[in-house]
From TrEMBL:
Cited Gene3D superfamilies: Glutaredoxin (3.40.30.10)
Record-linked InterPro entries: Thioredoxin-like_fold, Thioredoxin-like_sf
Keyword vocabulary terms for this entry: Signal
Name of the protein described by the UniProt record: Disulfide bond formation protein D
Signal peptide range: 1-24
Chain ranges of the Thioredoxin-like fold domain: 62-213
One Pfam family in the UniProt entry: Thioredoxin_4
Organism: Streptomyces venezuelae
Lineage of the species this protein comes from: Bacteria, Bacillati, Actinomycetota, Actinomycetes, Kitasatosporales
Amino acid sequence: MGVRRAGRLVAAVAAAALLGGAVAGCAGGGGAGEGAEAGPGTVKTSPIAAELAKLPARVDGSKIVVGQPDAPHTAQVLVDPRCGYCAHFEAAGGEVLAKLAGAGKVKVEYVLASFLDQGGASGSVKAVNALRASVEQGRFAEYLAAVFASQPKGKFTDEHLLAIADRVPGLRGAAFDKAVADLAYREWVGQAEKGFEETGAQGTPLVLVDGKPAGARDGAMFDAGAFTETLKGAGVGVA
């Protein structure tokens, strides 16, 4: 994301905070926010893909947990795959959390929403289904980053999700491809959306560190350096 675009995003969040504390992002009944820079069919991967490939992930009810179970801190991350603001977060704050998870300092609980599919669209549902399938292949963290980096301006399609998977070593195969084509985890996708709704969150992205919101009001979650300092203030990442 360019410096000017990042500046506009942070400014928008700060302005929203001043106007009654609202957080800039994607909300139910609204649009998907600023679209990612990837165009239709564009596939990108994370610059820290090699580190992400080493991160363990497991399903815990309606959440997907990344990192070591005994990590001293927990960061809960609420995102919708079609939310443009979530893509910006993953490219900044998401990478910070991933590195800390790799160092054993935090475990990250992903709550994958699909509320942006309201009105008959199916992009978020398809993407969350594919992300759930990637857990079975041990490639969730790397695929998650690639999905957001490759977020289309429209909806996700099976073809695009498989093209993204092509860039994640060890992910493509008969089992994964069938799970994507058949929406094999559709029931779980519904459970994940219900889990998101039960948090009471009004939109995405949202990060809770040990149960407390982090990096939203001041836009820190959209800047790696600022979010690192926010996490340090919460005791995460301090030696």
